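Q: What changes when coenzyme A is included in the input?
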Amino acid sequence: MDEVIRIEGLSFPNPWRREFFERELKNPVSYAFVEKIEERGRPRLVAYIVFWIVTGEAHILNIAVDPELRRQGLARRLLATALAFMEERGVEVVHLEVRRSNRAAISLYRKFGFEEVYIRENYYGNEDAIVMRLVFRYKSRIIP
Ligand SMILES: CC(C)(COP(=O)(O)OP(=O)(O)OC[C@H]1O[C@@H](n2cnc3c(N)ncnc32)[C@H](O)[C@@H]1OP(=O)(O)O)[C@@H](O)C(=O)NCCC(=O)NCCS
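A: The predicted holo structure follows.
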């Protein structure tokens, strides 16, 4: 948890507090994955992702990589693992919000097929969020 808090503080203008992560760990619909590398024979936590799965839909709440180790494919690997996990659990659609100015994250999400669906104005207080969506598959439903 200490490493996650450290990376979080370095990654966001309004970082989550420890209590927020702890609440997510107790939330039954919430999942958190971390990525570790081996450094001098010891594991080092370098990235994490937090998401919810609720009845066929997932929502990515948080993803960050240690600033020292960015642009090495760590986020790509973590997101790929999380998306595969979601799909295995029957998720059909994934949503997330991203700051309009966050070009790195938007580019990452687009590479996985996420599309911009709408804007939530002033979602971050001082900045709009782009809501992005990834649809794994469409299922035909019989409407009664
Ligand atoms: C966004 C973030 C998670 C990407 O992590 P990363 O490990 O550096 O990303 P990867 O090395 O796996 O890169 C995958 C793709 O993301 C995009 N990307 C990552 N960093 C980028 C940058 N600085 N500028 C432009 N595109 C970038 C690229 O499309 C990249 O593919 P490429 O290497 O083929 O160009 C990382 O920058 C981060 O932690 N940012 C702060 C937290 C944050 O903004 N999280 C997202 C909240 S919505």
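Observations recorded in class: Residues 98 and 105 are 7 Å apart (CA to CA).
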